[in-house]
Design a protein that fits this description.
This protein has 20 helices and 35 strands. It has 650 residues and is of the alpha+beta class. The strands form nine sheets. Strands 18-22-23-30-27-26-24-25 form an eight-stranded mixed sheet. A five-stranded mixed sheet has the order 2-1-7-4-5, with helices on both faces. It binds zinc ion (2 copies). One zinc ion binds next to α3.
Length: 650
């Protein structure tokens, strides 16, 4: 019997008999791995666990933990769902059923939309199919054979796919029990591995996403190898609903978006504005401490400036129509860059002046399609925490290392500790010479290596004017948000002929880096609201302390406590209404005010307060001056947690 060489991800090589299957190799490594395996990667291709391997090849076991593993898993669940639907609705015609970011869907042509009861029945039927532990089998067939089969069965969507999209001579079909679907695979070994699933919703969806086509019915579902993972998913979905920044924004009176003002234009209510102010103050202080200079620029500029910068050519779709003033055309700004460039050009610079770091909280306006506008997350007018670095080629790498560190420091202050970092390299259509691109890309790579940051390379996804790093932050629910971006630019220094005098006295072309750390203040605020579920850390909370006298008799002492707090710089207020204390507490809880100071006779006599923490309850009496010290420290640390000993201990 001949043998083949199987090469593992760690570089080791082992011999196996020719025709060995992925699952057999997985078992030879560990029974645990064999149990977790959903597919294998052979020579770069995803394959079924029971596919025989005939040649030497690099080999890797794919588990649910990886994106590919999830896709195989979810797509298998989609087959099971389609089978259940065809059993319950024999008239249903199958369209497509791909895995998506979280879970899967399948589109069906059915007489009427699925009802919630239908979904329940489909789930019941799926459970039966899963209990059968039916094996998935791959069958390779001639395309013409499959076409005939679907003609007979009247599966017109599959037929259309075979006639228009899938043009290979041989195509594969996956079978399990009495169900068969046109499919590239791979699939799970059997349906029994789907330990937990749920059908989430159903809705109409046009065939091929084209509104001129027939409306199909789509069912969305999720599936997992463990019940706990499904529970976790459902919890996260509930949490996401509870944390929705649009709901909290209204409840906590943080911001307002009015159709009379215009879609995608944000009104910052006083409480939201307090938070924004704190963020901006912190941002400004950190920038000034770290060698930035703050600048301000106007909201409009002559159209010629945007023609020179190339924006009218490359960025037209995102820009509003120009306005006319004194026979000249002016453009409302979609970006701040040309202004900073004109400031640079206002005088001469030497190598000693570089690197230059100019930062601006610059409000820009960009056109977004009405359909994509979403609360604070996608808007038409927003303030970027923008900056431009002008740097000599020699200092570029040091500057990048410094800049990435600074970026992570700012994000860290908002308790974002996990990131996904992407390096986007030269796209097909680009300007600037390849040598500069290579240098800039290497610079970005090396900067991240020096900082020991993990990143993913997005080949060819850079902007036309230079490579970039995007940092996506993970919020409390593990969701990714694009905030920070660091972008190289070969275009503007060239177009505007930027120079600096080098050591040898010659004029040279500097590099330019655009960067935003929080991204847009509006969007970042939306992310923060959801990240903190509206319970802001003390340093950001619009009202930090509410003083609640138990009866009117203590309003005077209450007012004196508020005055002391205000004098010490806290945002404090008195609830002097003649309401029951329970009612006052409930309202403060709804407003997510971090500290409630409850006062009665005992407190008044001893210059103290009874502290109640939002969401946590009573932590007993404290001297006012001690409480002030603890809260001051909490603000300095930007801590998301109280500095007091919590009920039950922590
Ligand atoms: Zn499939
Ligand atoms: Zn810029």
């Amino acid at each position: 019997m001949s043998e083949i060489k199987i090469k593992f991800p760690d570089g080791s090589v082992k011999l196996f008999p020719k025709g060995v299957t992925g699952i057999e190799i997985a078992k030879s490594i560990s029974s645990r791995l064999a149990k977790d395996a959903v597919a294998v990667r052979i020579n770069g291709d995803l394959r079924d666990l029971n596919a025989p391997i005939e040649e030497d090849a690099p080999f890797e076991v794919v588990t649910f933990d990886s994106p590919d593993g999830k896709h195989v898993f979810w797509h298998s669940a989609a087959h099971v769902m389609a089978q259940a639907v065809t059993q319950l609705f024999p008239e249903a015609r199958l369209a497509i059923g791909p895995p998506i970011e979280e879970g899967f869907y399948y589109d069906f042509e059915v007489e009427s939309p699925f009802s919630p009861e239908d979904l329940e029945n489909i789930e019941k039927r799926m459970r039966k199919i899963i209990d059968e532990k039916a094996e998935f089998q791959r069958v390779d067939m001639d395309r013409s054979q499959v076409i005939e089969k679907y003609k007979t069965e009247g599966e017109k969507y599959k037929l259309e796919l075979l006639q228009d999209d899938i043009l290979d001579d041989r195509v594969s079909v996956y079978r399990h029990s009495d169900f068969e679907d046109l499919c590239r695979g791979p699939h799970l070994p059997n349906t029994g591995l789907i330990k937990a699933f749920k059908l989430i919703s159903s809705s109409g969806a046009y065939w091929r996403g084209d509104e001129n086509n027939i409306m199909l019915q789509r069912i969305y579902g999720v599936a997992y190898p463990k019940k706990s993972m499904l529970d976790d998913y459902l919890f996260r979905m509930e949490e996401a609903k509870r944390r929705d920044h649009r709901v909290l924004g209204k409840q906590l009176e943080l911001f307002h978006i009015s159709n009379e003002v215009g879609a995608g234009l944000v009104l910052w209510m006083p409480k939201g504005a307090i938070i924004r102010n704190e963020i901006e103050n912190f941002w400004r202080d950190e920038h000034i401490k770290n060698g930035y200079q703050i600048v301000f620029t106007p909201h409009i500029a002559q159209l010629q400036l945007w023609q020179k910068s190339g924006h009218t050519e490359m960025y037209a779709e995102d820009m509003y129509q120009p306005i006319e003033i004194d026979n000249a055309k002016f453009q409302i700004k979609p970006m701040n860059c040309p202004f900073h460039i004109m400031m640079y050009k206002s005088r001469r610079w030497s190598y000693r002046d570089l690197p230059l770091r100019w930062a601006e909280l610059g409000t820009v306006y960009r056109y977004e399609m009405p359909g994509v506008l979403h609360g604070l997350m996608r808007v038409r007018g927003f303030t970027q925490d923008d900056a431009h670095h002008v740097v000599s080629p020699e200092e570029m790498e040091d500057e990048l290392v410094w800049l990435i560190k600074f970026c992570l420091h700012i994000l860290d202050s908002f308790h974002f500790r996990e990131y996904d970092i992407f390096l986007s390299t030269r796209p097909e259509k680009s300007i600037g010479n390849p040598e500069d691109w290579r240098k800039a890309e290497d610079g970005l790579r090396r900067a991240m290596d020096i900082l020991k940051l993990k990143y993913t390379v997005d080949e060819g996804a850079g902007a036309f004017y230079g490579p970039k790093i995007d940092i996506q932050i993970k919020d409390a629910l593990g969701r990714n948000w694009q905030c920070s971006t660091i972008q190289f630019d070969f275009n503007l220094p060239e177009r505007f002929d930027l120079t600096y005098a080098d050591k040898d006295g010659k004029l040279k072309r500097p590099f330019m880096i655009h960067r935003a750390l929080l991204g847009s203040i509006e969007r970042f605020f939306g992310v923060l609201i959801e990240h903190y579920a509206g319970r802001f850390p003390l340093w950001l909370a619009p009202i930090q302390v509410r003083v609640l006298p138990i009866t009117d008799e203590f309003n005077e002492y209450g007012q004196s406590v508020v005055n002391i707090l205000k004098n010490k710089g806290f945002r404090a207020e008195l609830d002097a209404r003649s309401e029951k204390i329970g009612h006052k507490i409930r309202e403060s809880e709804l407003q997510k005010i971090p500290y409630m100071f409850i006062i009665g006779a005992k407190e008044r006599e001893s210059d103290s307060i009874a502290i109640r923490l939002h969401g946590k309850g009573d932590i007993g009496s404290h001297k006012l001056r001690d409480a002030i010290e603890v809260m001051k420290e909490e603000i300095t640390q930007k801590s998301p947690d109280t500095g007091f000993e919590q009920p039950g201990g922590k």
